[in-house]
Amino acid sequence: MDEIEGGNCYWANMPSELLREVLMKIEDSESSWPARKHVVACAGVCKSWREIIKELVKTLEVSGKITFPISIKQPGPRVSPVQCFVKRNRATQMHYLYLSLSQALADDGKFLLAARRFRRPSFTEYVISLHPDHMFRASSHYIGKLRSNFLGNKFVVYDALPPHAGAKMLRSRSTQMVGLKQISPRVPAGNYPIAQITYELNVLGARSPRRMHCIMDAIPASAIKPGGVAPTRIDFPISNSDSFPANPFFRSKPNGLDKSLSMPLDSQRDASLVLRNEAPRWNQQLHCWCLNFHGRVTVASVKNFQLVASPENGLVGAENEKILLQFGKVGKDVFTMDYCYPLSAFQAFAISLSSFDTKSTRE
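The structure corresponding to this sequence follows.
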């Protein structure tokens, strides 16, 4: 009203730096996703608020903020990693991913994803959902799954929706058409393979270092080069409810992002990104294999790992040294998980879940 009548809104006089801090603290304090009506209300207060909200709801790569559910399918920031932690409930076979809201190794956090382990006769499967009480594929909260082979040393990550234009769906009896009332045309929610994870068999025992190999089928190897781009989703076309916003309200995107979204990976003439675990070093004083987690991991565990780009990507130098994902134990059934571009929270969480289910490393 103030802005329409005279353009002199009381809130507009607040310094933009202070306003930005206030809005970010409010967002961080919420334990659930912000409702669409609340975001629109903030953006409608005045021009200053609208500009700040536009900045906050940009893609995760640009804003560095996990603001909407779609953010968990978007690549993380390029500079600093997104710090998260995972809690495991052995009794219920549930795993919960939280966004860290402070520098503490495990705070209250903001809930992001849940995964439940299902044991089948010939494989193990983790169903990944946006809601801990909706752990089934027919739910609109279902976003993907992780499946292992019988030996528990090979895993495939499946996205429920196409990760990029031209993605091919693996047909199965579980393939379903979801959200039929909300979508036009219908979007098939099925099995889109986006990553393959392999653990080499350990002949030296469960306490010796493991060799981990990840092929990211949905990410081109060029994504980690300077100026490289990974496919970035801007829509979650399965709901329009306030509790599950379908897309950011302001689709400001960096240059080249639209091209990545519209172009299938195969047509980019680029091989898939390959990741490998950073090799640990033997500590003579501690008599164990060690990695430098820079204070983010405090408990020795065979599950601890760091992933970097593999030399087979044809890259050399800093691109092969940067840690893209690290996962490690900080307490009983509590683990930290830090990831950055070009991985998304969903991809990083799925890869981390594979560490729990490798048969030679159960603990």
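Residues 20 and 52 are 6 Å apart (CA to CA).
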